[in-house]
Structure formats: structure tokens, C-alpha cells
Amino acid sequence: MKKIQFVWFALLSLLVVVSLIGCQPQATAPVEQPTAVVVEQPTAAVVEQPTATVDPTACNLDAPSTPVEINMIGWSFPITDFYASELKKCNQVENLTVNTQQLDSASAHEQMRLGLAGGGKAPWAIIHNTAQDLAEFGSAGWLYPLDDLVKKYWTEYKLDDIPEAAWTTVTYEGHIYGVPWDANTIMMFYNMDLFTEYNIIPPTTYDEVIAACKILKNEPSLAVPFTMNLHAGWAWEIEFFNFIGSFGGKYFNPDNTPAFNSPEGVAALTKMKEVVDACMGPQGLTYSIDDSEIGMETGTIGFVNIWASRAANMDNPEKSNFVGRIGFAPAAAPNPAGKLGGSSWYDAYSIPANTGVDPDLVFRVIMEATDFQSQLEASQLGIVVRTSVAAAGGGGSRYLGAVNETLAKGVGSLPSNPALVLMQAALGNWLPLVGTGEKTPAEALQAAADEYLAQATQQGFVK
User: Fold this and answer.
1) What is the DSSP letter of 278?
2) Rounded to whole angstroms, how far apart are CA atoms 3 and 402?
3) pTM above 0.90, yes or no
4) Which of 204, 278, 365, 420 is the most buried (most CB within 10 A)?
């Protein structure tokens, strides 16, 4: 009996021990088996396979199925050089080659006219032009209408970000012929050190320009006190448009006959001659746009009337000896009671009618080069057209206030008239003779009117 009790007691004890062992916590389990998902296998969707996004700084185009070469021609200043580099980013796309050629403005226009007038395949798929060129090129049938492409890509490239006024400037006879990306005007740059030393306030009229020139004429550091670009006939025409607009004159009558040989035109050209005699002389008449820019950067000119697109170089230490010491002011008014002597210009990219390259592809290359990100960067070099850039904090350059005032209070844009090129040529042939004293303002304007009228009648612009 005692033996049986002992056996039962032993079995009971063994069960108790086993139970106690089974209830002990498994302290090593967390160490030997860490959470694999967190430590060893991080979330693959975020780390290893990020959600595909478009790189705003790249050329986001699909590769053409066969090799395509796109050539562009334009002219050089800081912001146009930037856009040319943006176009060349599309070289990263397989089977796509983009070549850019940046000349001076006169040479680029000469090459474009020669290349497009032949009637064969155009040498370029993209041409840089201004709103003023569109009437000439569009009326000649040299440009591809962009209406359908603008409509097709309106949403994808957010083209409503470009204001209607800019689209209007690149529209001729109801068709869009260009993609605008830059605005420009002529304004005043001045040497702040000299103006402070001589107690000169930035002139607001050309009478004040002449007065400032008289003060600076004997400054030994200056080659000339002041320049405006009058080194070529076409340059005289551009400045004449600024001056005649301030005096209330115009280029055309409603029947396309010349209106510039008017009392307002004579007053404008007379004022230009006064500026030449007081500020520039024969030496100043030789200064190109580049020469005037360099003169400001090196301190050999006191102040200039020059394109706003050159302003960024004033603060470029690789170009300018006066970083932060060149001031900017709106264009002066030739007529104290009139508009400021600065016109409104828009730069654009167009596609030739006979390009030989798929216009849809060319248009998308232009879009990639002029999208929001591109214009945000370009806003440090000039005036861009996308309104969202300002909202995003773009621009901010210290010359933009002077630019905007000139655009708002200046003489506006050249007329969109296909006969304009004939008028510009005639004015360019005769206006320089006023600077040299060979013609009076009235004589030069009448000679230009006679030349224009003969050409315009022969070509059917005047009946």
C-alpha cells in the first residue's frame, strides 16, 4: 500500500515540475527572431521602387523610333543663351539631336531670310524671332501655324500660364506662329559711383539726359558720357520708334502710306540729333550694343540706353568690374509730356513651314525648353512670360522694377504689318545721315518716305 502511494506521489510531483517549466517566459524569442519586415525588409515601394515622377530639369520626351536632328538659329544675349542650353538638354533623349546656333541679331535675321525665302527645305526646325518678325515671316508663308499644337498641349504644358497678351503678340491674321518665352525693352543703366560723385539723379527725360552729359563730359575715366545704340541703320530705326512714339507719332496711315514724315517725326528725330551732339559725338555713334554693355562693365561710359536683357551681366563678376554698382532706371521720355522711350518686345520660338521634321516633335522640344522650371531659372536673367514664376518667387532681380515701369509706360510694340520690313529698311537707310549732319531731320524722313512708298507700291502694300 505504501509502495502504491509512493508511486502516485512521484507521478504527481513530476507533473507539477513539467507544468512549472511550461509556464516560464521565453525570454530569448524576441532576440533570436526580430521583426523581419521592419529591419531586414524595409518597405520596398518607398525605398527600392519609388513612385515614378517627371524630372522637371530634364527633357522628358520619348525617344523617336528613328534618329532625328533638330537645328535652331537665334541670336545671343544672356537669357537666349540659357534657352538654347535648355533646348540642348533634349540631346539626352535617344535618337534625338538638337543643335543650336547663336549669332548677333542682324546676322541671324539675314540668315533666316536667306534660308526661308528659297522655298525648299528649311535649314532649321526652330527659329528664334520677335513678335515684330511674325508679320513679315507669317505673311510670306514661311512659318508653320501652331494653333492645333497649342490646343493639343494646352493642358499638359499648362499654356494658360502664359497671359493672353503674350499670345496676342505672336498671332498674325488669326494664327499663332510662335511660343513666347521672354519680354524685353530698352531702359537706362547708370554708374552709381559717378552719379553719386557728381550728384546726378537718374534722368527721366532726354532733356535731363543731355544735362547729365554736360556734367560728365570732362570726366577723365569716360570715353563718352552716354550712348544709345545708333551704330547701324537698323539701330537708328529702333530708337526712332521709341522717340516718335513719345511724341505721339506713328509709322503707318490706315492705307499703309507712311505717317512718320510728320511734325511728330521731325520733333523725334531732332531730339535724337540733340542727344548725339551733346552726349555721343562721332565716337559714340560707332558703339554697338555689345560696346555699350562693355563700356558699362569697364567704367568707360557713364550711362546708357540699352536692352534690359543685358542687365544680368552687370552683376556677373566674370564680365563686370562694377558688380552691384550699376543702377537701373526706366527709359527716359524723349517728350517730357509723352510716353517713356522704351518699346515692348517679345521673343518667341517658331517652326518653319518647310522644316522637314515632325512639327509635333519640334513643338514638344520647345515646350520642354520653356516650361515652368526653365522659366523659373531664366527669370534670373530676364523677364519671362509664365505668370506662375513670379508667384513661385522667381525673378527678384534688382532691375525688374525699372523694366516693368518701362513696359507699362513706354511706347508699346511695333505695328504688326507685313509692310513694316520695307519701312524699317527705308528708315535705316536715311536716318543715320542726320547723325552725320548730311541731312536735316525733315529731309531724311521725306527721303525715307519716298523710298518706302515706291517699294510698298511696287509690292502691292500701297494701292
Assistant:
1) I
2) 116
3) no
4) 365
